[in-house]
Hints:
By secondary structure, the chain is an all-alpha fold. Helices cover 51% and strands 0% of the residues. It has helices at residues 14-23, 39-56, 62-79, 90-102.
Amino acid sequence: MLLPPVEPGQYVSLRYTERLLDAGALASIGSVGDSYDNALAESAIGLYKTECVRHEGPWRGVDDLELATLSWVHWFNETRLHVSIGHVRPIEYETEYHRHNTARQQPLPGELALH
């Protein structure tokens, strides 16, 4: 299917929308002009500002803030206990998820792979 050219100013391109549909995925963004476009990102940015920038600052310079940001992102992704996933670390939850979900997708020994 040929798609019409996409205007540079569009928030969600037609190609992106078609690709999501082909993959059976739902967009995690809202439609143009609604207030949910960046809700998830804004929530994470708010946590970052509260827990890292304001709590640990003031900063001597950009380098100090960058190092603190790296430390906070590592903590956020790998160390913190997340309430909505059973008070486990996100990295543990993700590892367990992939262990359970990718094992079934692998071919049995001697079986041909589909790709």
